[in-house]
Give the backbone structure.
Amino acid sequence: SAGMVKADREICPHGHYCPMGTSNPIGCPSGTYSPYTAQNSIGTCITCSEGKYCSGTGNYQMTSCPQHHWCPAGTNGARSNPCPPGKYVELGGQISSAACVACLAGHYCPGNVSPIVCPAGTYNSAQGIDNVYSCTPCNAGFACVSSGMTAQSTTQCSAGYYCPAGTESATQYP
């Protein structure tokens, strides 16, 4: 049957199509796949489903979209659609940017990663920040002793010590 068999009489492999008289299989284009053998036209290549991607050519199966990303139908690469800075999504297989949620208070999200805690000496009460410089230094006279704080610390500097803005311990500066 025309196109189902290459010119050398081998069956056209999955992930490819072989128009009549073709000596080399043609890979389904990026963003598509074909789990079937013996296909004869590009029309037999199937668009990758939402939540999946198909990178490169000649795909015979889809791959689940990775965490921190979303994949609409026809996505052609694992890292094509990352959550924007200030947002994140932990689960893979997402189908739209609506899955990306605001970064948690006490954290920052630079993009493509899980939330990162604001370091000791800082705090952050806002959601959706995208860099460590948005973590607010603890007020002078106080120490922010743990990472991921969501409010200004009430830990006062110890007697005989001073605490400039951003101090991590009540006894950090004698």
User: Anything to note?
Assistant: The CA atoms of residues 35 and 128 lie 41 Å apart.
